[in-house]
Amino acid sequence: MTEQRAINGLAEMVAAGLVSPAQAPSLTPVEEAFRIRMTGAMRGRVLGVGDAVARQFVPEAAEMIIREEELADPIGDEVYSPVKGLTHRYPDRVILHVTKTCEVYCRFCFRREAVGDEGTLPDTDLVAALDYIALHPAIREVILTGGDPLVLSARRIKGLMDRLSMIAHVDQVRIHTRIPVVAPEKVTEALVAALRGARVWVVVHTNHAQEIGEAAEAALARLAEAGIPLLSQSVLLRGINDSVAALEELFRKLMRLRVKPYYLHHCDLAKGTGHFRTTIAEGKALMAGLRGRISGTLIPTYVLDIPGGYGKVPLVRDHAEPLGDGLWRITDWQGGHHLYRDPER
Ligand code: SF4
Questions:
Q1: Which of 85, 276, 311, 343 could bridge across to 108 with cysteines, CB 3.0–4.6 Å?
Q2: Which residues form a coiled coil (predicted)?
Q3: Is 222 a residue of the active site?
Q4: Kind of pairing, strands 200-205 and 260-265?
Q5: Average pLDDT over residues 186-205
Q6: CB-ligand 1 contact for 176 (6 Å cutoff)
Q7: Would the CB of 111 count as within 6 Å of ligand 1?
Q8: In the chain, where the domains are located
Q9: Which residue has a Cα nearest atom 6 of ligand 1?
Q10: Catalytic residue status for 267
Q11: Distance (Å, rounded) from C-alpha 54 to C-alpha 38?
Q12: What secondary structure does DSSP assign to 182-244, as a single string?
């Protein structure tokens, strides 16, 4: 297959035939509000305009519909940020935002107002964040996210792994990334070598089996064969993967590639993403449809990041009580209660 070029911006989307010239003017405000980028690998996985891969990256006019409940920081990263680049929400783990850059800009991104802006965390801020981690022995896990941490060079990743390995109380590093699927050529031998032997888990973000081509399969194999444990996270997306068949195909494919499905996220309340959001009841029905149909080892936990930064909870009865009419009482990990309303149809 011929290698495709990445697409940056609306004009290139039009040139690639993914947006019609007639549609383009209505999408200019979308481009002004949110970044647009799709890798060559993802372009190569599009089978038709508006399909399950295209819709994840091609802008739509619906993104300018900002609903009352949608937020600039839907999961509350900033609320729990003790120093720049760090989120410390739970006692035993922190999120280290090493970069704001991504290889793709997903139309449903929960950090869409933050990604793409500032690039890599400056070294002075990184040192301050590492000092904070070193001074807090309760922190046992460091989660690298961004943006996408694996946009950093293998040399920088190795340097970061080495620095984190010197903090005795950090048991585990978790890297959340879309790179192995959307830019598999970046999973180089040098990157694999940087991760090999580190106490690291890689959590691969992928939402549809159609995204995972031969190059992605090979990239995941390189990581698996280096002994790096692989998990997946997906976002439940209306019109893209909101069927038992689509989820089954994705999770079976991941299992064959030695990736354990970990999280299925309810789509967060990021601005302009309402057209992607299912109701919680729809998500729960899908999970029920998977139970018994596929092995329990393939079933991820369906979770909601409670808006405002109250943490993640599984969408099971103990944490999500239906109050009727699309209203839910969500109980956070500390026993606090929050009301959550499904999008109106
Ligand atoms: S790769 Fe992740 S952080 Fe980047 S735009 Fe997509 S969902 Fe957002």
A1: 276
A2: none
A3: no
A4: unpaired
A5: 97
A6: no
A7: yes
A8: 1-64, 67-291
A9: 106
A10: no
A11: 9
A12: HSGGGS-HHHHHHHTTSSEEEEEE---GGG--HHHHHHHHHHHHTT--EEEEEE--TTTT-SH
Nearest CA to ligand 1 atom 3: 147
For ligand 1, say whether the CB of 148 is within 6 Å of any of its atoms: yes
Beta carbons within 10 angstroms of residue 208's beta carbon: 22
Output the pLDDT for position 2.
60
Instruction: Let me know if 93 is a catalytic residue.
Output: yes
Query: What DSSP designation does 99 have?
Result: B
Q: Is 111 a catalytic residue?
A: yes
Q: How far is CA 51 from CA 1, 15, 45, 239, in A?
A: 20, 18, 10, 9
The CB of 102 under 6 Å from ligand 1? The reply is: yes
Phi-psi region of 262 (alpha: psi -120 to 50; beta: other; left: phi over 0): alpha
Active site residue 329: no
How far is it, in rounded angstroms, from Cα 228 to Cα 38?
Answer: 27
Mean pLDDT value across residues 312-331: 96
Q: H-helix or E-strand containing 145?
A: strand 141-145
- Per-residue pLDDT, averaged over 24-29, amounts to 97
* Per-residue confidence (pLDDT) for residue 138, from 0 to 100: 98
Instruction: Give residue 241's pLDDT.
Output: 98
- Helix (H) / strand (E) element for 284: namely helix 280-290
The protein residue with its alpha carbon nearest to ligand 1, atom 5, reads: 105
229: left (phi over 0), alpha (psi -120 to 50) or beta: beta
Phi and psi of 155, rounded to 5°?
Answer: -65, -45
User: Annotated catalytic residue: which of 90, 125, 332, 341?
Assistant: 90
CA-to-CA distance for 28 and 59, rounded, in angstroms?
10
Per CATH, domain 67-291 is 3.20.20.70 = yes
By CB atoms closer than 10 A (0-12, 13-18, 19+), residue 283 is: buried
Rounded distance from Cα 293 to ligand 1 centre (Å): 30
Find the range with the poorest average confidence among 114-118, 150-154, 277-281, 301-305: 114-118
Residue 256 CB-density burial (10 A; 0-12 exposed, 13-18 middle, 19+ buried): exposed
